[in-house]
Automatic annotation (TrEMBL), chains A, B:
Protein's recorded name: LysR family transcriptional regulator
Keywords, sorted A to Z: DNA-binding, Transcription, Transcription regulation
InterPro entries cross-referenced by the UniProt entry: HTH-type_LysR_regulators (IPR050950), LysR_HTH_N (IPR000847), LysR_subst-bd (IPR005119), WH-like_DNA-bd_sf (IPR036388), WH_DNA-bd_sf (IPR036390)
Similarity remark: Belongs to the LysR transcriptional regulatory family.
Entries under CDD domains matching the protein: PBP2_LTTR_substrate
Every HTH lysR-type domain range: 1-58
Annotated source species: Flavobacterium panici
Length: 296, 296
DNA sequence: TATTATAAATCGAAAATTTCGATCGTTTAC
DNA sequence: GTAAACGATCGAAATTTTCGATTTATAATA
């Protein structure tokens, strides 16, 4: 058993397709096939069921996948600790985010880069559940998301700030000074809404359902920035979390009058494993930003 | 970085002598030298200080040693879990013991072998501190010892039974029916004592010191069984924990009247890591034996 | 049902890596 | 000052890994 073989195995187990996995690993399919077999021989166990031309993990394979990841992780942690020890500010951090928080993330990423110009920041957008799965398999270092405080003790979830479902208006709009607003009133306005691919949209739809309300969007769009551009043009309004307004000084958020319009933004790490220096810095950066914006 | 290199590194770090380590690993010194250098290159860090013809670990090396062991351990755990899953009752368990408990261990070993004839039992005798160090570096699977309940949360210590410092006599001796006896009285008897290499002897000496007492042994011997043979010949007495009497039906233990004559026998595992099926069986065996002998 | 496309296994050769044995250069011990 | 001990280095040998081509089996399609 060698780390190389474990890495090959993990990728093959993830893709369940030797050809693709081999491409991904920049080796040939024959090499992968051979090395998997070698690993199986050394463990004296079959890791894959070869059913015809397709493969699936055996029970042993499922278990081995977990241990293989842990072993690789342990080795990478060793390397990272040594790098931190030597104050080597190089490498990469991979940060997951839901669409609703990518705005916040991008700002922090810029500041991060000023401190660590040689550390690459890789951003992975996805749904909360996508990202949680990636955290578990160590594919991302941390994630930003709106999340119901989960009881999973494999995850280290920290609260960042509360966000309220709000009507987003241009300051020139007569209602922009309101302290709050009802769904009934909103129904009168020309609405642009984010498309279903955003979790905010699901949250809005659920909230409407609970309130026995309906809202029809005149326009749907799958890019928050473009959406806000539209609102900025004074012709439209939208509904977003009030914290999505970074960089639009002429827009205001009016909280909606209803129950359960609050969501908690969180940053999540896999728990119990070494947190590299750069990642700790990133975490502090994000949290400091929260304080600065009085969002806490 | 490969597991092979980590294994080479760990052995070299333990022996701090490449030539010896290479012998131990059944490779040549040149191979070891080369592979260590390869590892250092891949980590971009020096693991050893080469001072003249001698080597010592760098700070990075010390840290790496810990991570290397963890990584190797994780890989071996994977293998073990798969073996357990397939009900493969083969392999090896390595059990540490202090001299005072090896008697108990040997009995259990015999029973263990009846259940798992294909699992090799390797017994490592040593002092409590020796063994604790070996537990920490995963050299032994568990250990039997008398131990003051340690607060180390890296160790999983379980109590087996209490043992009292006792005078050991032949049943024919007039004092053999006594319920207890003082050190003053014992001083009148012809004593054989275990030599300083046994922890029981240290414990006895400390207890005497606390009681402002002295005892002179006529004979000292570094083998408990031979010592008991002498006592069995009716000419001698000795002082041991009362639980050391297995297999000598004609000997009795008379507890000594004094404070702090009790020690707790314990079985200790490294905590938080997978315990293979055979080891769990061994643990149950030992604990069941305790119940059977009413030692709990 | 025959045909085609897909995917893993297998085989032999090439490439790369690991290992070895011999030797070199220091350092330590006597 | 000499000999022994030890790690580094070098080139060659052995082993392992990788590759490309081919085979085999299966699923999809005509």
């Amino acid at each position: 058993m060698e780390l190389r073989q474990l890495k090959y195995f993990v990728r093959a187990a993830e893709l369940l397709n030797f050809t693709q996995a081999a491409d991904d690993l920049y080796i040939t399919q024959s090499t992968l096939s051979h090395q998997i077999k070698e690993l199986e021989t050394s463990l004296n166990v079959l890791l894959f069921d070869r059913i015809g031309r397709r493969v699936k993990l055996t029970e042993s394979g499922e278990i081995m996948l977990e241990y293989a990841r842990r072993t690789i992780r342990q080795a990478e942690e060793a390397k990272q600790v040594l790098m931190d020890l030597n104050n080597l500010k190089t490498g990469k951090i991979i940060i997951g985010s839901t669409y609703g928080l990518v705005n916040l993330l991008l700002q922090s990423a810029t500041e991060f880069n000023e401190e660590f110009p040689d550390i690459q920041i890789q951003i992975v957008l996805g749904s909360t559940s996508d990202l949680m799965q990636k955290i578990r398999s160590y594919e991302i270092d941390c994630m930003l998301s709106f999340m119901p405080s989960s009881e999973d003790n494999q995850l280290d979830v920290m609260r960042l700030f509360s966000a309220n479902l709000s009507l987003i208006l241009h300051t020139s709009h007569p209602w922009s000074k309101l302290k709050k607003i009802t769904f009934q009133k909103i129904a009168e306005l020309p609405l642009v809404l984010p498309s279903q691919s955003y979790s905010i949209r699901n949250f809005l739809d659920e909230t409407l359902l609970k309130n026995n309300m309906q809202l029809k969007a005149k326009i749907e769009i799958n890019d928050i920035h473009s959406l806000l551009d539209l609102v900025n043009s004074k012709k439209w309004c939208t509904i977003l979390m009030d914290t999505s307004l970074f960089h639009f000084p002429e827009l205001v958020a009016v909280p909606i009058e209803s129950k359960n319009i609050t969501r908690e933004a969180t940053i999540t790490f896999p728990s119990g494993i070494y947190r590299k220096a750069s990642l700790v810095f990133f975490q502090n950066l994000i949290m400091k930003k929260m304080v600065m914006h009085n969002l806490v």
